[in-house]
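Target protein
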Amino acid sequence: MNTNLNPRAKAPWHLWLVGIATLLFNAMGVFSYTMTKLGKLADLGMTPEQIAFMDSYPAWASALWAMGVWGAFAGSLFLLLRRKLAVPAMLVALLGLIGTTVYNYGLADVPASMKAPALDVAIWGVTLFLLVYSRAMRSAGVLK
């Protein structure tokens, strides 16, 4: 006799593909953030101008950046673990991304050598996709 009143739906094959691919993608953001906070930007090949810009990041913008990268990484991890927490993690990531985008495009004087609109579009696309995807997986009963 099955006493589980709310069984979890079987994970579709694409959950693993999406989860692993986005975890790897989001790990790049975590790596970049961590290297910045450890003062290892020269090790990444950044110029003195780029390092000076990153060192000038205000605390509130840095906190939003942390929310974005760590929230997205957690969202991918929770997706792989099939946890409903993937949805709020992606909402945190989206809030962080919004704040970081406002700072970088509206308030900061970003060096030309650091502008990467294609990467920014990719980050936005992955973040929005993960939010929609995790909500769909939650609605389908895959995430508990």
